[in-house]
Amino acid sequence: MSLDRARARLEPPAADSIVPRRGRGTELILLMFAIGIATFAYINVDLGALGRVPPNALAYLGGLTAATGVAHVVIRIRAPYADPVILPIVVTLCGLGLAMIHRIDIARETTHATIQLTWMAVGVAMFVGVLIVVRDHRVLSRLPYLAGLAGLLLLVLPLLPVIGHSIRGARIWINVGPMTFQPGEAAKIILIIAFAAYLVQTRDALALAGRRILGIDLPRARDLGPILIVWVAALGILVVQNDLGPSVLLFGIFVLMIYVATERISWIILGLLLIVAGGLAANAVVSHVQTRVDFWLDPFIDPTGQIAQSLYGLAYGGLLGTGLGQGRPELTQISESDFIGSALGEELGLTGLISVILLYALLASRGLRAGLLLRDPFGKLLAAGLAAGFFLQVFIVLGGVTKLIPLTGLTTPFLSLGGSSLVMNWVLVALLIRLSDAARRPVPASSSSSPAADTAVTQVVRIR
Amino acid sequence: MNSPIRRISAGCLLLCVALLINVTYVQAFWADELNARPENRRVLLDEYSRERGPILLADDTPVAESVPSDDEYQFLRQYPQGPAYTPLTGYYSYYYGRTALERAQNDILSGDDDRLFVRRLIDLVTGEEPRGGAVRLTIDPAAQQAAYDAMVAEGYKGAVVAIDVETGAILAAVSTPSYDPNAMASHSIEEQQAAREALEADPDNPDLNRAFAQRLPPGSVFKLVTAAAALETGDFDAGTEVPGPAQYDVPLSDRDLPNQNGEACADGTPTLIEALRDSCNTAFAYLGNEVGADALREQAERFGFGTQPLTNDDMNAATSVFPSELDDALTAYSAIGQFEVAATPLQIAMVSAAIANDGVLMEPYLVHSVRGPDLVSPIEQTEPEERTRAVSPETAEQLTEMMVDVVENGTGQNAQIEGIQVAGKTGTAQTGREEDPPYAWFTSFAPADEPRVAVAVVIEEAPETARDDIGGGRLAAPIARDVMEAVLGS
Lengths: 464, 490
What we know:
Distance between the termini of chain A: 10 Å
Shape of chain A: globular
Strand content of chain A: under 5%
CATH architecture of the domain at 219-368 and 383-489 in chain B: 3-Layer(aba) Sandwich
Helix content of chain A: 55-70%
Order of helices and strands of chain A: HHHHHHHEEEHEEHHHHHHHHH
Distance between the termini of chain B: 95 Å
Mean pLDDT of chain A: 85
Oligomer: heterodimer
Structural class of chain B: alpha+beta
Largest sheet of chain B: 6 strands, mixed
Number of strands of chain B: 17
CATH class of the domain at 219-368 and 383-489 in chain B: Alpha Beta
Strand order of the largest sheet of chain B: 3-2-1-6-12-13
Number of helices of chain A: 17
CATH superfamily of the domain at 219-368 and 383-489 in chain B: DD-peptidase/beta-lactamase superfamily
Low-confidence stretches of chain B: none
Radius of gyration of chain B: 28 Å
Strand order of the largest sheet of chain A: 1-2-3
């Protein structure tokens, strides 16, 4: 290592000596594993449930390989320094999700897996599109207010007459022709971009200390505007759209990002207080918040309820699971969507569910790592917001279905059935790829004579 | 901005650990409790998805079997022969668990038994659905049905047991009133609950297996044991005259022990054979005091009293008792099967069976063999096993002679079978409660010269019979005859 460092100081890295650091070969090998896992899972489902190898196994393998291959090639061209672990994790998760949706298709005699596969193709297309169009993440910071407005607009879209409609009591859907979308999924990403752009501009002001109470520097009252606006918006979603998950998630992400921007813990405390206040207020207005808490405290007040069934499924799976295709995930309500984590826990067991959680954690850690490595504040904020927000969502939904916290409706990224969620998570990953590429890309060698040379060299070393 | 990102990373790690700990708790530690909850449909579906093995009679007729079900579950447990076999099969209820053989043989029936391990391994490899093994009983359907039909036709509450004297195999075990176990095996929890509540509310307690699990005072059928003890001393034989007055002056007591009809037996000095023929209380009370409580108890124990039978079959049979610490007065009452002497119908049948088998008591058993899921390949077969020598062959011979006399000339004439010599003994036991009619007993074996089957019948309640007409000879003997005929005819 010290020799490397010495050499790095002496001479700018030659183009071909950087190649191994790009990790594209690693990514390719990991992708093969991911496609292998996905295909085996798919075949395993049919073997377990129907006792035969699926007739379209090769086509499935081919399709998956094609979609993944396109994503990989585009990364090679457009983001050659991107973190090599991100895409394989995403493909693995998508493969597990598809296998489980296919498994529940068999039990319920539905055909969701084909639709989901189509959406995955759309997702990959969007992934490619983002990587091609957004060549530098910093362009995203240009229009914070417009992005914020667009995000809010998307959020309220389902409330509009004619196109908006509700499913299972949550009014978060819009109809476009024969298809339905959850614009909230897109709104989440656009709002994270907007938050990052906005906070980069205002963080100095927001970091100014106001009154000091109990040893904590509170922000100045006049700077409370933004957080209150987001808070009200989040409460609005909850009350009007009758959906707890997105509002908690949205507000949580904002609080995390404001903390990253200002480095002031007081914002977290303030955020938590606002969540409690909002929760109490919502509890008074929205009846199902209380129901969710009741079911969390005792899921067996209705033994046929969602949580009880989810727990039965997890218990039935035990340590090693029943094996794909051999459990009864169809007994758990919405096990193809919100409760897909419980379905995976049933058939893949504790070991499988732990693996899935660790995959999510690894993905989030790669995003956060990019945030650490990035040099521009907007990129740092965006990476932290996307990665932490992503994991927060995973925590809220998986914690909900496993009775760690009260259940709130959210999709499980990449696993859950649902086009909007899948496509927008591919977009989110495209942004993470873009950010990690920027984070790991060596500073051009020509800058060695500039005053930034010292930092540039340090950064090159820090890549490892 | 790096330090808040690091802190947020640590926060994410914390959330991750919380998720991991929680799923570990649910799936590894809480799972057993969750799986045991009655409303957990997964476990229910699992139970009903495996083809449980059948319980077969001696002629391979199934009395319990799993049939494909047309509802959401795969198999339904059925009891095609209905209530006649319920005390043996028990029921298989998801909600209330399993009873009798469904419980005792559960490992074989469900396929979990170690002896089926290789079979399971093969199923695993070949992808066959694992099935349970079969349990074949020793029960003779003709005998069982004859006993059940006879008891039900008269509305009797009671029990019948028939034993193959040479092997100890139980040929019939009937307990009435019985009930249809099919409702308990229903796929509907509500139906199971309704059936269970009906069972519990029934004052006749149909869930009690009266053949194996209920002890009653045996009354005069116990005189066989007293006679055996007397003969075994060598001081008596069938022709020995003993005092048989109308009243026996009970030692240490101002009470008198009377004969049933209030008259002296055979001019007051009956021979043993005459005493048994007329079921002479005073003569046997005398004999009891002559041989003593210890010899009586010892003899009773050699017939099986004091040891739980059917433990190999795990049938929760009751242990019959001969009381300890008896003074002479209580010995006199015990010698005629009263006071605290209590025996199951199975035990009384064992007494007859031992006498019939030249004095050798065979271990009674119910499970003939256990077979693999194909219902043919044998896994284990019960070998007949000698339990004790209850009496010497000479004593057995004399007792047989005396019992033949009972059926030919005495109280047991209702058990006579055309062309076959029957040996038997009646009993009419006081319940110990003034208001209740006595229990009617009968035990017998046939053919007397080459015995094959021994029977015991007890009738606790005969609702259509006047109290004074209740007696072992009148009520129980005809049923014993039917059962013996059914066994010998087949």
